[in-house]
Amino acid sequence: KAGVTQTPRYLIKTRGQQVTLSCSPISGHRSVSWYQQTPGQGLQFLFEYFSETQRNKGNFPGRFSGRQFSNSRSEMNVSTLELGDSALYLCASSLAGYFQETQYFGPGTRLLVL
Amino acid sequence: GQQVMQIPQYQHVQEGEDFTTYCNSSTTLSNIQWYKQRPGGHPVFLIQLVKSGEVKKQKRLTFQFGEAKKNSSLHITATQTTDVGTYFCAGKGGGLTGGGNKLTFGTGTQLKVEL
């Protein structure tokens, strides 16, 4: 079974631009979560999508948004990029997000904002 | 909100020495997961603990979940260079419904192993 894939793997943008990142979960997985990883803040939860609906949300500004498609693929968008948005963005998938499920992480998209 | 702290932040050991990282949550956890992230890599799931006082072993790794379900530890016996990486604990909030995946990650412990 193929793992979680994320595209692109690397991205360079400038302040004020917007960016869209993509995540394809493991086949059959319907829950997709997004995390931001930075040296200063560590791994922080952004949001989770299940059946095309946002089910959980972290404490990030409205510039960060996401969506999920009927095939469970997910995208996240960051508008009006700031320097502090430079980070590794990780996507994780699981079957349905139930109590004891394991999440599987993708390789991440490394975003650099100049 | 829920906070999960890990100590130590860094640990530098000689190959063959033991290593322990501790994880403490400000609130009761429904379960705790442990991940390993190699330099330049992504978090890889190691194990999940669910029951109060649970202990699980994976070869040289021993994981414990505290009785109050607010703390956990990972112990590696006789470290090897392949153990290098950052170890994260991650907790899900209390309650049994587990409505969705919202993991709160610990701050991580970076392990370096010297020959």
Description:
The complex is a heterodimer of chains A (114) and B (115). Chain A has 114 residues and is mostly beta strands. Chain A contains no helices and 11 strands. Chain A has strands at 5-7, 10-13, 19-24, 31-38, 42-50, 53-57, 64-68, 74-78, 87-94, 104-105, 109-113. In chain A, strands 2, 4, 5, 6, 9, 10 and 11 form a 7-stranded mixed sheet that branches. In chain A, strands 1-3-8-7 form a 4-stranded antiparallel sheet, with no helix packed on it. In chain A, a hairpin with a 5-residue loop joins strand 7 (64-68) and strand 8 (74-78). By secondary structure, chain B is mainly β. Chain B has no helices and 11 strands. Chain B has strands at residues 4-7, 10-14, 19-25, 29-37, 44-49, 55-58, 61-65, 71-76, 85-93, 104-105, 109-114. In chain B, the strands form 2 sheets. In chain B, strands 2, 4, 5, 9, 10 and 11 form a 6-stranded mixed sheet that branches. In chain B, strands 1-3-8-7-6 form a 5-stranded antiparallel sheet, with no helix packed on it. Chain B is globular. The relative contact order of chain B is 0.34. The model of chain B has no long low-confidence stretch (mean pLDDT 91).
